[in-house]
Amino acid sequence: MKIDRLIAIIMVLLNCDKITATKLAEMFEVTPRTIYRDIDTISQAGIPIVTTTGIDGGISILPSYKIDKKFFSPEDIQSLLMGLSSISTTLPPSELVGIKEKLKNLLPTEHTKERLLKSNQITIDLTTWMGNKKFIVTLEQLKEALNLNTLIMFDYYNLKGSKTNRIVEPYQLILKESYWYLQGYCTEKNSFRTFKLSRITNLKLLNSTFVPRNFTPLPLSGQGWIDQQLIPIQLRIDASLLEKMIELCGEDHIIPTDYNTFIVTFPFVPDDMGYNLLLSFGDKCECLSPPDIRKEFANRIKKLYSIYTTQLPL
């Protein structure tokens, strides 16, 4: 196919300083006239082709269009490919395929197979087993808005479930702890705000652009709200929760007992999210102290129990 030959010719030109039309014709088993037509097509696509005549003449790509292979080490390219593979688990691959192929082309021939193998040895898959299938579409819409400086409008639900309509200037997408966030300037609040993408619905790109403001990314460290609410609580957990607790608070806060259970000093925020997290551990976890947290947790369990013991209306 012609498109395959065009791509192959570009790769050859990127890999060499200069090559004759005759040599290219031999490589692709076509006539020199066909090669010249292909070169003309490549030039029309915006790739700066240079042709010279004479004994040392030939076809080449403008040197400033190339990246010296020595600029990136094989280890650098391996790391970049690994990162791109991880990004591709949350974004459509259409934009990434070409980038990955270009990076592979920068690898010295003797290192290609080895580095490609190693780049696949670590994969960061950020997708969920189940989830909102429209989420990727939302990300693509936001990427477009970011690229074009387009105002967006959406409905936003807060922690209590209240819905507001927002018009926002988008500035940055952030992935933190498997959750996506959008940072932008809210025209309603007249300030920069952080929005959790899972709470955004009915997203629309408006037919209006904006002049970017001076933007400094807002911290997502929890300072100013979560750190002021954190209190240590004591949990007794079953061994089946050990791995989860190590992820959440580290081994230094976990002490084994003689009964195949563990005592955990757990950083806890006494709000709905905090108590819902404890409830998610089921009967494999017991809150031991402080007494007020244990009492409130028990009250929430009673309310949940009452819901399921109340007979449904016929």
From TrEMBL:
InterPro entries: CBASS_pafABC_assoc_protein, DeoR_HTH, HTH_11, PafC-like, WCX_dom, WH-like_DNA-bd_sf, WH_DNA-bd_sf, WYL_dom
Domain HTH deoR-type: 2-61
Stored Pfam families: HTH_11, WCX, WYL
GO MF term set: DNA-binding transcription factor activity
Keywords on record: Transcription, Transcription regulation
PANTHER family: PROTEIN PAFC, PTHR34580
Protein name, entry field: YafY family protein
